[in-house]
Amino acid sequence: MKVTNAEFVKSAFALEHLPQDGRREIAFLGRSNVGKSSLLNSLLGRKGLARTSNTPGRTQSINFFLVNERFYFVDLPGYGYAKVSKSMRQDWGKMAEEYLNDRKELSLFVQLIDARHEPTELDLQLRDWLSHHGKNTVVVATKADKLSSNQLTKSLHQIRSHFGSIPVIAYSSETGKGRDELWKAIGTALA
User: Fold this and answer.
1) pLDDT tens digit string along 77-107?
2) In the chain, what are the domain boundaries?
3) Predicted structure pTM score
4) For the chain: N or C, fewer Cβ within 10 A?
5) Cα–Cα dist 68/39, whole Å
6) CA 131 to CA 78: how far, in whole Å?
7) Would residue 103 be called left, alpha or beta, if left means φ above 0 and alpha means ψ between -120 and 50 degrees?
8) Per-residue b/e over 128-153, b at no fewer than 16 CB within 10 Å?
9) Helix, strand, coil share (%) of the chain residues, nearest 5
10) Is 147 helix (H, G, I), strand (E, B) or coil?
């Protein structure tokens, strides 16, 4: 897909702040520090549109990016980062779960896993939740450029063993590996 226009639209800190224009949405979910912002910037071909940080857990809202004036990329708070208060984590989790469960505009759930590590318990809990609710999901193994070809093959085999029939795409924000494949999955979901 050719991206002709991409812009940050808003941050939602409560469900009543969500866009109400009926456009389709692609949700990006993953552990803090998995490379969500870098992936979004890479997919959209725009450096710095989604803010990256060396401090995991910075995204504390649901962030909406309008793509080609047709649909939204939705960046959800990363899960599993310990340096925020327990009540704040619970508030994010409650809002994110309500958004993910009830939002009619959601067309695809993109779950990010760091290719360098085995999926965590939280990754598997999210997998189970998405599967239980019958959500259209694709898994993206980020930071694929950090592994040798042999290591990546082993990692993808391991990830696929945890995710069964859910498609798994190796992705590198640095090299663009997996970009076309992910856009194809997004295009199919939007069709």
Assistant:
1) 887 644 444 554 555 567 777 888 889 999 9
2) 7-190
3) 0.89
4) C
5) 17
6) 19
7) beta
8) eebeeeeeebbbbbbbbeebeeeebe
9) 35, 25, 40
10) coil
